[in-house]
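Input (structure):
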């Protein structure tokens, strides 16, 4: 849920110039970063993400909003919480405090 992996071939921003996608081999058989080319140059870091929270009509920010409703059943009054789905505005793009490495970055960071 929510993973942003690449689904198509050939549009990988970190791909090497070698055909077949075997990876960029540097000196000594070690992987090297692909060189940025033209306007489609990509960085392996992610600086923003899509926010997961919403604003309500009052300007409050939260993941979920509920309102209290009074239900009368068999002469008894009972309070229930009803989830609000309407009139919520998505938070939008959120800047990350520390840059993250992109999920499609093809270099092994740590070997065990």
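Output (sequence):
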């Amino acid at each position: 849920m929510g993973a942003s992996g690449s689904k198509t071939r050939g549009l990988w921003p970190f791909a090497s110039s070698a055909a077949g996608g075997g990876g960029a081999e540097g000196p000594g058989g070690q992987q090297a970063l692909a060189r940025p080319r033209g306007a489609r140059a990509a960085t392996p870091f992610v600086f923003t993400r899509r926010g997961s929270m919403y604003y309500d009509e009052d300007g409050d920010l939260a993941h979920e909003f509920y309102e209290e409703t009074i239900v009368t059943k068999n002469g008894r009054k009972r309070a229930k919480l009803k989830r609000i789905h309407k009139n919520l505005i998505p938070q939008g793009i959120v800047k990350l405090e520390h840059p993250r490495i992109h999920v499609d970055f093809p270099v092994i960071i740590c070997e065990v």
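Notes: The mean pLDDT is 77. The CA atoms of residues 65 and 84 lie 5 Å apart.
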